[in-house]
Amino acid sequence: MKLFLDTANLVQIKKLNQMGIVDGVTTNPTLVAKEPGEFEDIVLAICKEVRGDVSAEVVSTDFEGMLAEAKHLSAIAPNVVVKVPMIPEGLRATKAISKSGTRVNVTLVFSANQGLLAAKAGASFISPFIGRLDDIGQRGMELVEDLVKIRDNYGLKAEVLVGSIRHPQHVLEAAKVGADIATMPPEVMEKMMQHPLTDAGLKRFLDDWEKAKKTKASITV
Fold this sequence. Notes:
The chain has a single domain (2-195), classed as Alpha-Beta Barrel (TIM Barrel), CATH 3.20.20. It is 55% helix and 16% strand. An eight-stranded parallel β-barrel has the order 1-2-3-4-5-6-7-8, surrounded by seven helices. The chain is elongated. Strand 4 (80-85), helix 5 and strand 5 (104-109) form a beta-alpha-beta unit. By secondary structure, the protein is α/β, with parallel strands linked by helices.
């Protein structure tokens, strides 16, 4: 499974990308607005840092507006994926944009029916938001399970990109059910590296090493 970062913060992206664990990045208007600089410059910098897919989202909600933005966004870098909302005009735009050769990530997917329609329209990526479903008392991972089953049943080309991830358990569950991609905030990816037994084991090894060095030094003297 590919692991994406859901952020527009270049410092955080660079830090984790140096570890070789970042396959791509997803952004949205909210994330980009938090960072200093012009939108295009931010997206370009991310695309240069991460060679994988970088989703940049349109803000228009009408067909013509989305097409114009998609053309502009796709010209920023070859690894830009245009992010389009799951609305009727968004499906229409997805069909047109994907036919032009630009890949589309249909976002704000909250039902399997929506995901199926996005795939039919030509989306390269379908983004179910599981955390937000959990927030309203639904089991978000059930949507991922449904989308993976539908993808496999019919050999759909669209990849299931799990978004709105809140904790490492979401990532693990998404991997177990066969999702293609999980996109997460940097802090979630950092938590995936951590375990108290790792910390305790490392401390013990280092303590033992220090004791061994002191013992050898005293014998030598």
